[in-house]
Amino acid sequence: MFFKMKLRKRFYISWVGLRGAVPIVFATYPLLAGIDKAHMIFNIVFFISVTSILIQGTTLPS
């Protein structure tokens, strides 16, 4: 609406956009705070983020 882009380009950008960086950064906060089981939380978030990126990456045209 605010940008003069075609709808197809907007969908592409929303699908391909930055994925995983913010959750991984947020998952480091419990590690820095020394919270119990923080390593498990970080590992789960990291695995889900990487899996999501790989799945979405396979759907992109080359």
From TrEMBL:
Carries keyword Glycoprotein? no
Q: How does it sit in the membrane?
A: Multi-pass membrane protein
Where's it mainly located? Answer: membrane
Its localization reads: Cell membrane
Picking any one GO biological process from the record gives:
proton transmembrane transport
Q: Which residues form the Cation/H+ exchanger transmembrane domain?
A: 3-61
Keywords for this entry?
Answer: Antiport, Ion transport, Membrane, Transmembrane, Transmembrane helix, Transport
Q: Name one GO molecular function term.
A: antiporter activity
Instruction: Give TM regions.
Output: 12-32, 38-55
This chain's protein is named: Sodium/hydrogen exchanger family protein
The species this protein belongs to is Mariniflexile fucanivorans
